[in-house]
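PROTEIN DATA CARD
Card holder: MoxR family ATPase
Chain length: 296
Origin: Metabacillus hrfriensis
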Amino acid sequence: MTSQLEALNLPNNILSDIKKRSETFKNSEDAMLIGKGGYMPSEDAILFDAMIALSLGKNVLLKGPTGSGKTKLAETLSNLFGQPMHNINCSVDLDAEALLGYKTISQEGSKTSIEFIEGPVIHAMKKGHILYIDEINMAKPETLPILNGVLDYRKMITNPFTGEVIKASSDFGVIAAINEGYVGTVPLNEALKNRFVVIEVPYIQGEQLKAVLRSQSMLTNEKLISQFVTLSSDLITQVQNGQISEEAASVRALIDTCDLAVYMPPLRAISRGITEKLEDDREKAAIQNIAETLFV
Ligand SMILES: Nc1ncnc2c1ncn2[C@@H]1O[C@H](COP(=O)(O)OP(=O)(O)OP(=O)(O)O)[C@@H](O)[C@H]1O
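Structure generated from the sequence above:
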């Protein structure tokens, strides 16, 4: 891994920053070994570019369909950099308190006082940890602008609940994830999007997918694993042709299907793990047809 990074001819300051940030970096080859559950990139640039961007202090936006490994990639980066990760799961209910923290009354003996419990943003800023904002386009458009100062060169915020001015520690990093076009999502505000470096995270295929299915599912039958990889690539072709929706090719659903296939015939596993999650009868029939030709 180190030599692969060196081969990219990165400026020395970036390379040494990446190495310095992570005490585990010299063992990163181990950390990345798929058997240990790290993110398996479809191309090295996905992982390296995310590392370079974070190392330069940029915010990273991971863009890709459901179950394509965005969270796994963020976890792997946190692992590589040796920086704990704090999660925010966005929804319409997300508010400033969920991001920044809240006041509460604390009691010590007969003494009561008001205490501020720090939320994930302030905690990660102070400690120089990684903040992971999942499904960022599920938040109401008016909620996230409170983070504008955190997400630009200032990297600071005035806590509206306490008046404290917080400047992020130099290692603080932000990774966000987005699923475009899903129910409940809204287009990301341009000013917010502009604060991120965007990295596409597609579904993995072929040998990479095989390695992930081997390591993350319970299935050990190599022939079946290969058939499921073929099923996935046929489904991705159908997605590209607009015949079925993207989530049908999710790696998460395929791992579930492989697990089920240890205990039931593959066609039933596909029905439970993939087909029945869809609403449209034509899509279901299309998947069933593909499955029946592969698993006779
Ligand atoms: N490239 C990959 N390398 C390793 N594991 C992967 C990869 N792609 C998917 N997975 C596995 O698939 C499952 C789903 O991945 P993950 O939760 O990271 O997806 P996601 O893109 O964050 O999904 P969502 O958008 O629904 O939150 C996990 O078990 C993860 O380990």
